[in-house]
């Protein structure tokens, strides 16, 4: 087929022909992989080589054709990988090709890697992953901000990453839907009273609205936009960050907040399962991520700047509030954290309740000034303010 003449949804048969030019030999088979909410992803294998083909669908996959989306997110992801690779070499997947008409990326196959979320659920220790992601976060946050990037270059870069359709999805699913009776919300019957209480919590709704405004208006850096533990893949000695289709110019604290929230939910799941030793591992992951983020920030930006301390204080405060919102939406919103959903009752219901309490503590418990305070509120027994 002529893959430049127009968009055709790929399947396990047609993707063989599409991927043929990028393999060292004829393709043998293709398998749809992943459980993404947005796109279709195939692994195409030949006798000695393989590639990943990721295609944007014209709708939100997790919601079906009733929630249409443009396919421009594929171009956003291709461009974001390019920008972030320059700032954090070796952390992003290698892009082999991008087909604009097909809205499809051809990427290196990370078949030996596992997602951080899956390793967390399995209780598998991955050394170095938190440190690598922390340094990546600092590199892309500072490297695309006015702190390091000349204003003229930044202005040009921003034109390619405007507030996108996927930003509207984030705006709805994180900041709005969990606090309304939205059709996209889903939760267990046991959690229904907590979900309904969110809709009548005026303080919480006000805090969510305030952070929604920050998300929409504070174009501080070219952030990943969806940096949860399922967006990180790792094997011994090698960590990669994937799925950059949500990338846009947004607040400094959003990516760190989302990642720490997902680590906190993982810890709650292990605690309710009785895996207390692995809880200590997750505590270490969270602390290592934040320490690496701060160390790299100091390396890249002069800590002698007069307002450096105030910058860091706002950074951690914003990260805490975004973390709170992410924790809540992963319990009652459309896309859940598998860490907790995979638990059996009653442990799942207890973890869900604690996740909501932790999120509320981060949003309403006063300004967070330290990582230790953030983490304690997120996972502490007395998280409810």
From TrEMBL:
One of its GO terms (molecular function) is S-methyl-5-thioribose kinase activity. Keywords: ATP-binding, Kinase, Nucleotide-binding, Transferase. It comes from the Bacteria. SUPFAM superfamilies: Protein kinase-like (PK-like). Its EC number is 2.7.1.100. Gene3D superfamilies: 3.90.1200.10, Phosphorylase Kinase, domain 1. The keyword Repeat does not apply. Signal peptide: none annotated. The keyword Nucleotide-binding applies. Residues 30-262 form the Aminoglycoside phosphotransferase domain. Homodimer. Belongs to the methylthioribose kinase family. This is S-methyl-5-thioribose kinase.
């Amino acid at each position: 087929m002529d893959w430049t003449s127009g968009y055709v949804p790929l399947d396990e048969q047609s993707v063989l022909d599409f991927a043929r030019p990028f393999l060292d030999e004829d393709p043998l088979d293709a398998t749809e992989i992943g459980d993404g909410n947005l796109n279709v992803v195939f692994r195409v294998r030949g006798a000695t080589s393989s590639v990943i083909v990721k295609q944007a669908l014209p709708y939100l996959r997790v919601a079906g054709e009733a929630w249409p989306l443009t396919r421009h997110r594929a171009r956003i992801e291709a461009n974001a990988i390019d920008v972030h690779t320059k700032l954090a070499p070796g952390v992003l997947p290698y892009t082999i090709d991008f087909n604009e008409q097909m809205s499809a990326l051809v990427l290196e196959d990370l078949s030996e890697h596992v997602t951080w979320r899956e390793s967390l659920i399995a209780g598998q220790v991955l050394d170095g992953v938190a440190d690598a992601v922390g340094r990546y976060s600092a590199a892309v946050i500072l490297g695309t901000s006015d702190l390091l990037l000349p204003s003229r270059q930044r202005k040009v870069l921003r034109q390619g990453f405007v507030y996108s359709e996927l930003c509207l999805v984030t705006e709805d699913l994180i900041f709005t839907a969990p606090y309304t009776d939205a059709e996209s919300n889903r939760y267990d019957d046991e959690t229904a009273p907590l979900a309904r209480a969110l809709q009548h919590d005026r303080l919480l709704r006000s805090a969510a609205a305030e952070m929604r405004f920050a998300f929409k208006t504070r174009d501080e850096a070219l952030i990943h936009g969806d940096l949860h533990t399922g967006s990180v893949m790792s094997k011994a000695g090698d960590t990669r960050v994937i799925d950059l289709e949500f990338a846009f110019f947004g607040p400094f604290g959003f990516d760190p907040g989302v990642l720490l929230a997902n680590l906190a939910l993982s810890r709650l799941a292990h605690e309710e399962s009785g895996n207390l030793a692995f809880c200590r591992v997750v505590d270490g992951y969270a602390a290592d991520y934040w320490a690496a983020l701060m160390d790299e920030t100091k390396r890249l930006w002069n800590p002698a700047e007069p307002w450096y301390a105030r910058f860091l204080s706002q950074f951690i405060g914003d990260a805490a509030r975004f973390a709170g919102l992410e924790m809540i939406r992963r319990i009652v919103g459309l896309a859940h954290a598998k860490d907790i959903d995979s638990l059996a009752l009653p442990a799942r219901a207890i973890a869900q309740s604690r996740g909501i309490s932790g999120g509320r503590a981060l949003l309403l418990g006063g300004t967070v000034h330290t990582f230790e305070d953030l983490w304690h509120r997120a996972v502490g027994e007395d998280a409810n303010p």
